[in-house]
Amino acid sequence: MKTPIGPDIVNQLPGVASPAISPDRSVVAWVRGQVEDGKRVSWIEGAAFEGGQARRLTSGKSDSAPSWSPDGSTLSFLRPSSDEPGAPRQIWLLPTDGGEARQLTDLPHSVAAFDWLADGSGMIATVDIDPHRGSRDGSKTTVVRDTYYRGDALGYREDAWHQLFRIDASTGAALQLTTGAYNHAHPVVSPDGRWVAFTADRNVDREKRRPFGSELCVMSTQGVAGGGHIERLTPGIMSAGKPCWSPDGTALAVSVTDMSQRHQAYLERIERYSGKRTRLTDDTVNPQTGFFPIAGPPTMVWRDDEITFAGDARGRSGVYRVAADGSAPVEAIRSEAELINGFDVSADGRSIAIVSTTPEAPGEIVAIGEDTQAVLTNASEDFVELHDIGDVEFFTVERDGWEIPCGLIYPPGFDPEQSYPLVMEIHGGPNGFFGEGFNVLHQVIAGAGYLVLFVNPRGSSTYGAKFTDAVTVDWGGEDSLDLLRALDVVCERPYVDANRLGVHGYSYGGYMTTWLIGHDNRFRAAIAGAPVVNLWSMWGVSDIGPSWGSYQWGDVPDDNFDWYRERSPITYVQNVQCPVLILHGEHDWRVPISQGEEYFAGLRYRGKPAEMVRFPGCSHLMMRVGDPALVREYYERMVAWFDRYLK
Fold first, then answer.
1. What are the start-end ranges of the H helices in 343-426?
2. Which of 72, 90, 480, 578 is disulfide-compatible with 105, CB 3.0–4.6 A?
3. What is the pTM of this model?
4. Are 248 and 272 in contact (CB under 8 A)?
5. pLDDT tens across 241-263, in order?
6. For residues 3 and 387, is the Cβ–Cβ distance under 8 A?
């Protein structure tokens, strides 16, 4: 008998990621992960591209980033040098004709990513050089000199930088190619092996752009110790994604975001020697750029006169091709009701592997050929067979000339003749989006007997640049009215009990939760996860406050005090009528816990019913990479709070 999904999904649901297609297109490798004895573990699996029995390829507990050597004789991957906490990740090599994996590198710092040289003699690797790893010269103090001196989920970054190294594939010998107080990432070697393209934050005004700012650069792979000449191909942009080379090595393609539109990416062609830029896509599709700092941009490939890439459009993911000279519009070669959370494409562009998740099912590896398609994994099969998954309905509502995308999840066993409490879910960002994929948190709430309304108000990405940018310097404005309009429409349905409404959001969703309950008394219970409540103080304490906050909120707080105060939920704390639960990680540096503390103190001082739960050791990304036991507790406390006040 099937049961609803509950908080223990954290321990029960395996995951797959990072597909990698072998050079001969016969095999796909990927990362398989799950929770064992309360710890997250991962290893590498593989299967034939056409389908068949998957088999485990590595035996580690924290293996990641599979990558094939150019001749396919070796599968390389990353693994910590030991089981000790914080041990640096190293490159390991597994021969495909049999034998055990061997550790190639033995660096004092972690390898973050790498790309093979064309002849297989080595690779160009990004190495996270942290001179303070393990100690700070006996001092208990930390000296900071840069605005971005610590990063959420990364730790202290003062004097720590990502540098490029050339690694010998036989000996593991490492030659450092880049130096300086810059970060270098996403190396991609040219077809002839002579050059490496990468991204770097070498901008003059990088203090105002970190940690997201970067530009496209090129240097020789032969390099000299201490650094060779670096060419900057895209000065003046906000950020660049992982590039790909033209077949002849005379041009590159890369996704870029401009200073004026920081949340809409465009694919551009960059001429290698002249620097001429040609825009290849418009804002109808958003090329995928990864999720900093836990997932980098996916691979693209340039074959003949076409570029193949993964992108998002209107709440869905797809695989797209575009003419390399910009002479033809983007063509969707796969666009279904799914989200793609991992992507690889063969060098000839003929074979594709993705991690596909749908509203009804968690992610699986799908291999797509020119005339074939095979689902290579069944990671979630047992889970799906044992659990009732809430049905999802997608619809839109109109407001102020805009179509606002929405979704409603029905609790398992839904009976339209009954009346149900409803929880409105608000995404983070504010430029995130709720897409057509499996949402664990939403299913946990639905499994507890609630209707779950989720909305993509203006500011959400994948709906065009104008829609996405509409929230800039308007937090708590039209975006909040979009949400309430969607809620009004849904509450007209006979099975929605408008007297039992709850609201939950995380990060910007926490901001909007606290904003709404300070302006509208229809909610009977609210949960704010890692909420932004005071824009003035947030600007100075967040790891991205000066760079990202200045753009989102328009200028620095002391030059715009009245607006910062007007748009801060803490200003309206005296208006809150419903009980509020605040859930916050103690090591959150993106939205520091002081934000939650301010709101909790403001509520309790005024005698408002409120609780605050502090999650030790948890960063802002706790819901993605946090301690499984604490993520489960987040779900449990969330459901218990709504049960207490809505049932």
1. 381-386
2. 90
3. 0.95
4. no
5. 999 999 999 999 999 998 777 78
6. yes
